[in-house]
Amino acid sequence: MTSSKTILDALIVAERKFVENDLNTLVEKYLIPLSDEDSSPLAAATSTLENHHHAEENYLHNVSSSLNIIKNLHKFTLSRLEKSDLDPNTLGALFSTVTSQLLAPYKQYYTSVPKIMNYLQKEKENNESYRNWLNQNDEATLNRLLVEAPQEHLKFYAQQLNEYLKTTTISQEEKSHVESSLDYLKKTMEAIVKAQHEKHHTPIRRLSEKQ
């Protein structure tokens, strides 16, 4: 049986990797350069894909905004997990607080992601500057960090919390916290799946067409 201390250690390692590697790389290497209206390769195209634009919104900025909230919540979680006085048998109380706050920003994030993927695919087909940029910046990593990495991390949360439920030292109150956390994680994953499969008809105004 996995001990609560082992689960705590695994969560610290995974949370640190997610914050310091995945989220930082996604924001610093990809989203910030792509959303810069002056230097972005997305601003270089001259061809027009849509004659009518119903959205002035830049979804790259939108998703960056959601990610900032997500990142701050994960940084808070990491700081709490790393506290030397944290009792490993109080993980449920921490995660019931965190997972309840993650639902809304993750839902907002994954509502924008399919629109961004559609947008970037069109740019890849029509924008040589963006194609050149992708060749230098690893498109597969962008796609993994944008779509898969956050979901994988949430699934890891659920896996570890389910293991935690099996430990013999857990109190009834703590068990209630863990079950609440797992419920929020389930709702978050369901919201992500729904957001990814919804039809997104609103055309995205390209950076090259900003006035």
From TrEMBL:
GO molecular function: guanyl-nucleotide exchange factor activity
SUPFAM superfamilies linked to this entry: DBL homology domain (DH-domain) (SSF48065)
DH domain residues: 3-195
Coiled-coil parts of chain: none
Top-level division of the source organism's lineage: Eukaryota
Name by which UniProt lists this protein: DH domain-containing protein
